[in-house]
Design goal:
Elements (H helix, E strand, L loop, with lengths): L2 H40 L4 H36 L1 H5 L1
């Protein structure tokens, strides 16, 4: 196994990480932005008002996209583990 193969595996892993985490991060970002605009407009500054909607949104996204995320990660891990004999020998 040479350095190009190692770099390719690392790049593939980082891209997979970005792809799997993007739905949760984007939804939490949008919910945080909406809550922040609401707090600025109404001048209500409570920590729970910004925390609870983000957690609810993250749980909802995990419920919807969770099976896809797990399947994608398991496929990547399976592919990586199966490529070990070819990389060693």
């Amino acid at each position: 196994m040479d350095s190009t193969q190692v770099l390719a595996l690392g790049q593939q892993g980082l891209m997979l990480l970005l792809m799997v985490s993007a739905p949760v991060l984007l939804v939490v970002l949008v919910v945080g932005l909406v809550v922040s605009i609401f707090q600025a407009a109404t001048q209500i500054n409570e920590a729970t008002l910004s925390f609870v909607p983000k957690v609810v949104a993250a749980v909802a996204v995990m419920a919807v996209a969770g099976p896809w995320m797990v399947t994608t990660l398991v496929d990547y891990i399976r592919q990586t583990l199966q490529s070990i004999p070819g990389a060693v020998g």
